[in-house]
Automatic annotation (TrEMBL):
InterPro entries: MFS, MFS_trans_sf, MFSD1. This is Lysosomal dipeptide transporter MFSD1. Signal peptide: none annotated. It catalyses: L-lysyl-L-alpha-amino acid(out) = L-lysyl-L-alpha-amino acid(in); L-aspartyl-L-lysine(out) = L-aspartyl-L-lysine(in); L-lysyl-L-lysine(out) = L-lysyl-L-lysine(in); L-arginyl-glycine(out) = L-arginyl-glycine(in).
Length: 517
């Protein structure tokens, strides 16, 4: 590669992906900390005496600073201070919040119910103030490194790290805590601390990149596009744009029906469908662990050979070779499922572990749907489809009582949770000019936090209300709290239709492939 082509660190693909990993530590750990309480809801009731309303209050108050402008303030600070300082400050606030919650759960501020609850909430408020700005910092940093390269893929992978954090936090917290809440909170808080160290390592490269880019622009006299500062008048202009207004409201109703549901999903599966929350014995963990590692390694080796085979030119031109390869892959997969069947059966019987499949599934589905939207378009129609799936999911998990239909419900929720974000976030970039994207995301995230606040808290309070007189530890009726979420699905469909209609008038091309714009 010539000197002119490979001028800075960001022109090296290895560097770009390494930076994405260093940066995604914060995404992974903050999503983990946001969602890990879901697997501990039952234990928080039995060990700490927290009611469902108090559980919901802890989650809801995580969003409070964001509801009142923290994301917009964070965005303005990001513009003024730059990625490094904003990342360290807001990542640091998240670490501090995590540490306060962990100390509170261990009884450091007092072991009575009130002290624990209030100080966990103080920690969560601080954590929440950092969480959303960290998400904006991550988006901005990815654009800095990947503009002109695989930007959409990099964003999808970063979101994948977040979903992996949610899934692992939900699935493993009970095991990590060993039957207690406090060790699981300490572990989750430590993860954010480690991620901040990863971000500090990232800043060394960020400084180097800035120096290289400055040297190039000094030499060539190139002037970079000035970043537009946040202005309140931009906010008014945005809200007056019908397509933006509908997509922002859709972001509120859609995410309100998903994120809060996920916090209660393990407890719902345990209470309504009789899933377990038992911890495996030490011996069983060793047996399953070795089986899973063994089977996965064999499968991985098979696939490494398959990839090697596939990249050798002309291998797939022969029909017989193609048939042999496909049959081999199928046999290997059946063998894998056979070896893993006990582990899968136990996994699918456990409330938290089954619920974790929702964010886990999106890691595979979101890039597939993202690719579909890039190539074929139909973003507004896919949002209608996603909202329909959301309605089916919440009906099957509330008024219906069949565990097999419930599995389908969870699956359709996973598909909806992949479809809508894959269609929604790139559509914002079609509606809003690039230099206003920061303001647009900050506005959407702020409104989204209002919806999350209402439903995080509302579901818990409603759950207590409809189950008055039922002591902690006895099965609770989730029908009405989840049925309320069906309403969000209907409003989402209505908004998606309005968006499609507005797009026909305003011509943003939401139904067209991305590369045709
Ligand atoms: N480039 C924008 C991607 C947004 C992804 C989206 N994130 C949010 O909605 C944030 N408000 C973070 C919320 C974190 C809570 N778990 C997402 O789908 O995660």
């Amino acid at each position: 590669m010539t000197e002119t082509l490979k001028r800075t660190l960001r022109d090296s693909s290895a560097m770009r992906w390494a930076m994405l990993i260093l940066l995604s530590g914060l995404t992974f750990s903050t999503y983990w900390f946001q969602d890990f309480f879901s697997g501990l809801k039952g234990l928080m009731g039995s060990e700490m005496g927290f009611s469902s309303e108090e559980f919901g209050r802890i989650l809801a108050l995580t969003t409070i600073a964001n509801m009142f402008g923290m994301i917009i303030i964070g965005g303005i600070m990001l513009d003024k201070w730059g990625i490094r300082v904003a990342g360290i400050v807001f990542g640091g606030i998240a670490v501090l919040g995590g540490a306060i919650s962990a100390l509170a759960a261990s009884g450091f501020f007092g072991s009575d119910h009130g002290s624990m609850l209030n100080m966990i909430i103080v920690g969560r408020i601080l954590f929440g103030s950092g969480l959303e700005v960290v998400c904006v910092v991550a988006t901005r940093t990815i654009v800095k490194w990947f503009k002109g390269y695989d930007l959409a893929l990099a964003m999808a992978i970063n979101m994948g790290f977040g979903r992996l954090g949610s899934a692992m936090g939900t699935a493993l917290s009970l095991d990590i805590g060993g039957g207690h809440v406090s060790p699981a909170v300490t572990f989750a808080a430590t993860l954010i601390g480690l991620a901040l160290i990863m971000f500090l390592i990232y800043t060394v490269f960020d400084i180097k990149l800035d120096k290289q880019e400055k040297a190039i622009s000094d030499k060539s006299g190139e002037v970079c596009d000035p970043e537009e500062d946040f202005k309140f008048s931009d906010l008014i202009t945005l809200i007056k744009n019908k397509s933006f207004l509908y997509i922002a409201l859709l972001c509120v109703t859609f995410y309100a029906a998903i994120f809060p549901f996920m916090q209660y999903a393990p407890d719902l599966l345990i209470n309504k469908f009789g899933f377990t929350q038992n911890l495996p014995q030490a011996g069983e963990v060793i047996l399953w662990g070795s089986k899973a590692i063994g089977a996965s390694s064999i499968y991985l080796i098979f696939f490494l050979f398959a990839i090697l085979f596939a990249v050798v030119p002309n291998n797939f031109e022969n029909k017989k070779t193609r048939f042999l390869f496909k049959s081999g892959a199928l046999i290997a997969f059946c063998f894998y499922l056979f070896v893993m069947k006990d582990i899968l059966a136990i996994w699918l019987d456990n409330g938290a572990k089954t619920a974790s499949l929702i964010p886990l599934g999106t890691i595979i589905f979101t890039p597939i749907f993202g690719n579909y939207v890039d190539k074929k378009g139909k973003a507004a129609s896919l949002m209608i489809l996603g909202s329909l799936l959301l309605i089916f999911a919440h009906i099957s998990l509330s008024i219906l009582d069949n565990v097999y239909i419930a599995y389908f419900g969870l699956l359709s929720l996973g598909v909806a949770f992949s479809l809508v974000p894959a269609a929604m976030w790139p559509s914002v970039a079609k509606i809003v000019a690039e230099n206003r994207l920061g303001t647009a995301y900050a506005t959407m995230f702020t409104l989204q936090n209002w919806g999350l606040f209402l439903f995080f808290w509302g579901i818990g309070a409603l759950l207590d209300f409809v189950n008055q007189g039922i002591p902690e530890g006895q099965p609770k009726d989730y029908t009405i709290p989840i049925l309320v979420l069906v309403g969000c699905g209907f409003i989402s469909i209505f908004l998606s239709f309005l968006l499609k209609k507005a797009d026909r008038k305003q011509n943003y091309g939401l139904e067209l492939p991305s590369n045709s714009n």
